[in-house]
């Protein structure tokens, strides 16, 4: 059955991505704490914040094994009950938290772009990133996430209309009985027997709320990204700052840009396409699982730009790799020398 094959592939991708995400983000945290340049300042705590967020996202992905599913004018996140640590009520709450992570993902980077702009402009508000005040900034993505949690759990909660519409199709595609899974998602409208369309207002309100959070995050990223880019170029032109500081600011900015593109490309664009098909009443069915796969990959690949672009981290990785190669080479040389000596010693002495 195609649905089961996709589910098996999804589970494999989620497991592999989660392991890689936890390893690479933990490694990045260690580098941030031990190898960061002194000029990094409070930004290192923001970088650690991203890594911790992505580790949590990966763990949640493995615990839930969520399956995105589009059927006509509805778009759901389905979580099977089999082999889960929690019951239906707990899984619904965790499913809404999964929604929250999606909503917070872009807001996390919006805060980073604001900080980068404050740094390059030496704005007085930069002081709010010191001490306990930094938690105010940390709370911004949390509020975005909470908005998504409430939208999923309350405005997109399971109901009679949605359940009646999806249960036969889910049974056919995934071979799951209605009592074997929980779901969250909007059922936007349904066609009645007489050909009219019955619009469901509450899901549309929820969709409007979460769309507003995504749009606002993207606007903040674009506005402060452009302002930051212009300011860095101005610093280069005036040479008012040290070359070393400008170089670091460039590295951090470009790493941040690429890091932001990762969730935008792997999460928000696929989800937007799925929602477009929902509005058009085009049934994607099991192929909506592509969204689940790209979301699972996001936390695993997002730290890579920082590791590659920031010079201190890149040089540390190269140094470790070179040291490992030297050690292996030394062992190989020592082994071959020992073998040669042993062979020579065992040669018979001519009479």
Task: Give an account of the 3D structure.
GO terms for molecular function: G protein-coupled olfactory receptor activity. It is built from 10 helices and 5 strands, in the order H-H-E-E-H-H-H-E-E-E-H-H-H-H-H. The protein has helices at 2-35, 43-64, 88-121, 134-155, 160-174, 201-238, 243-279, 289-301, 304-309, 311-346, and strands spanning 67-71, 74-80, 181-184, 189-191, 197-199. The protein has a 3-stranded antiparallel sheet with strand order 1-2-3. The longest helix has 38 residues, at 201-238.
Q: Tell me the radius of gyration.
A: 26 Å
Shape: globular
Order of strands across the widest beta sheet?
1-2-3
Quantity of strands, as a count? 5
In a nutshell, what does this entry contain?
The chain has 351 residues and is mainly α. The chain contains 10 helices and 5 strands. It has a 3-stranded antiparallel sheet with strand order 1-2-3. Strands 4-5 form a two-stranded antiparallel ribbon.
């Amino acid at each position: 059955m195609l649905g089961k094959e996709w589910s098996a592939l999804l589970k494999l991708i989620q497991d592999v991505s989660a392991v890689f995400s936890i390893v690479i983000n933990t490694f990045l945290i260690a580098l941030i704490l031990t190898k960061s340049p002194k000029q990094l300042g409070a930004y290192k705590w923001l970088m650690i914040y991203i890594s911790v967020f992505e580790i949590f996202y990966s763990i949640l992905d493995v615990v839930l094994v969520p399956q995105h599913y589009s059927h006509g004018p509805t778009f759901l996140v389905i979580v099977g009950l089999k082999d889960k640590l929690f019951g239906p009520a707990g899984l619904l709450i965790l499913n809404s938290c999964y929604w929250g992570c999606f909503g917070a993902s872009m807001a996390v980077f919006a805060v980073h772009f604001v900080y980068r702009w404050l740094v390059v402009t030496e704005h007085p508000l930069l002081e709010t990133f010191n001490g306990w005040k930094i938690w105010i900034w940390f709370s911004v993505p949390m509020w975005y996430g909470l908005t998504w949690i409430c939208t999923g759990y309350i405005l997109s909660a399971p109901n009679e209309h949605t359940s009646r519409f999806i249960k036969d199709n889910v049974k056919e595609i995934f071979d799951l009985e209605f009592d074997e899974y929980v779901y969250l998602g909007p059922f936007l409208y349904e066609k009645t027997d007489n050909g009219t369309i019955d619009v469901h207002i509450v899901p549309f309100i929820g969709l409007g709320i979460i769309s507003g959070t995504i749009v606002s995050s993207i606007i903040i990223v674009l506005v402060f990204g452009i302002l930051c880019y212009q300011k860095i170029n101005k610093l280069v032109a005036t040479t008012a700052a040290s070359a070393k500081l400008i170089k670091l600011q460039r590295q951090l900015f470009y790493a941040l840009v690429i890091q932001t593109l990762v969730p935008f490309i792997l999460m928000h664009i696929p989800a937007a396409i799925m929602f477009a098909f929902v509005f058009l009443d085009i049934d994607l069915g099991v192929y909506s699982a592509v969204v689940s796969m790209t979301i699972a990959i996001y936390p695993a690949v997002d730290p890579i730009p920082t590791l590659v672009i920031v010079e201190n981290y890149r040089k540390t990785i190269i140094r470790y790799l070179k040291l490992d190669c030297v050690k292996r080479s030394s062992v190989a040389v020592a082994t071959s020398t020992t073998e040669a000596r042993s062979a020579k010693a065992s040669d018979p002495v001519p009479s």
